[in-house]
Design a protein that fits this description.
Phage tail protein beta-alpha-beta fold; 3-stranded mixed β-sheet; 3 domains; Jelly Rolls; alpha+beta; globular
């Protein structure tokens, strides 16, 4: 990377600011690449440490491109605010020489040994060198703090994957494990030498875990943590609960409190908040409650989304509409609480909403109105449960 930069600088022309700006732009391109190597990242840090001008130009070029903001890497602070925060936070990294020392007056007898040492140092160092030394120390503090801000922005040790409406994606993680990501789902993977950690931020996924007893595979989803070594399981994360279904092997499921993921490893949950599941078993986890075991789970139903099928057994029409919304851009809206709690049973194609709507039209207790956004459902003459055949 350095050779490439040097060649570009020799070919180009302009002031030092313009040269550094070009280098900063090149670094932004390199760091935004998912294939960026650890060596390149270390080289980037070394480039930052050479000058606080490098830090400021990189921050400015990042803000101008807007790429970090689109991927939520960039904080809300402006460049000026970041630099001001770095300067304000440098007090712990810079030794301030007090006014008494600067004026050369004697240190009172009650002062500390450290104060005396500062005063002695002030008398030894020529006054003409104080300002440059302080400026250099402050610059180093600013650069160090800015490096920390930038490293946090990129979160280099993790990768994020997401799917759009109707999209199902297979992801091979860096350890060889495979994650099948359902529609409108998002996960973040962070692997270290000691463990493999995945956060299911939203949606649903099947994990086929590569065996490695020395590196536990941990999946967190809301207040739920799942630990596996080599197994296959499905995780369906909702706002109110998380459902874990074991397809192969065994996993340990824990209901965790509301603590940051980084602190999860130091928390010891109550024994009744941990259960081990075997093949064919399922756990339903809600916040602050012990996991509920389902000994004979319908694994085919749990994984039906891989074939874009939706199973409903006496599900409310509200839940059915919400599930269809995960797979489609057009939405189903329901007017009235009575209709919203209507029960639906059946198997439907996840991406074929029109067929489901036609199914509802055959019943006099539901009136359907179509508009640009999708469909609006209103209560008809009577209310009764609706049973649908597989479609």
């Amino acid at each position: 990377m350095t050779k490439r930069f040097d060649e570009d600088v020799r070919k180009g022309s302009g002031t030092r600011h313009s040269i550094v700006a070009r280098e900063a732009a090149q670094w932004l391109i390199v760091l935004s690449d998912s294939e960026c190597t650890r060596e390149e990242r270390e080289e980037f840090i070394a480039w930052l440490l050479r000058s606080n001008l490098h830090v400021e130009e990189f921050l400015r070029i990042s803000e101008l491109t807007g790429s970090l903001a689109r991927f939520r890497f960039w904080p809300d602070d402006s460049v000026a605010d970041l630099i001001a925060k770095a300067r304000a936070g440098s007090s712990g990294a810079v030794v301030h020489i007090g006014a008494a020392a600067a004026s050369g007056r004697a240190v009172p007898a009650g002062d500390s040994l450290a104060d005396r040492s500062v005063a002695d140092s002030a008398r030894v160092v020529p006054r003409s060198l104080w300002r440059p030394c302080l400026a250099a120390a402050a610059s180093l503090a600013i650069i160090s703090l800015a490096v920390g801000v930038i490293a946090g922005m990129f979160d280099w040790s993790s990768k994020t994957y997401a799917t759009n409406a109707g999209e199902i994606r297979s992801i091979t993680l860096e350890d060889g494990s495979v994650a099948e990501l359902n529609t409108r789902s998002r996960l973040r993977a962070r692997f270290t030498a000691n463990e493999r950690r995945v956060q299911l931020i939203a949606g649903e996924a099947i994990f086929n875990v590569a065996k490695n007893p020395r590196r536990p595979f941990r999946v967190s989803a809301g207040s739920t943590e799942i630990v596996a070594v080599g197994t296959q399981f499905n995780v369906d994360a909702h706002d109110s609960s998380t459902v874990v279904t074991v397809l192969e092997g065994r996993v340990r499921v824990t209901s965790m409190p509301d603590i940051p993921p980084r602190d999860a490893g130091r928390f010891n949950p109550p024994l009744d908040h941990q259960i081990e599941l075997a093949r064919g078993e399922q756990a339903i986890v809600t916040k602050h409650r012990p996991p509920l075991r389902v000994a004979a789970a319908d694994t085919a139903r749990a994984t039906a989304w891989t074939e874009r099928r939706l199973f409903f057994e006496r599900a409310t029409l509200r839940d059915v509409a919400t599930e269809f919304a995960r797979y489609n851009d057009r939405i189903i809206r329901i007017n009235g609480d009575v209709l919203a709690v209507k029960r639906i049973s059946g198997v439907f194609n996840a991406t074929d909403q029109p067929t489901f709507i036609e199914f509802l039209r055959t019943h006099t207790d539901v009136r359907v109105r179509e508009d640009a956004r999708g469909w609006v459902l209103e209560a008809g003459a009577s209310q009764s449960d609706v049973d649908g055949a597989e479609r």
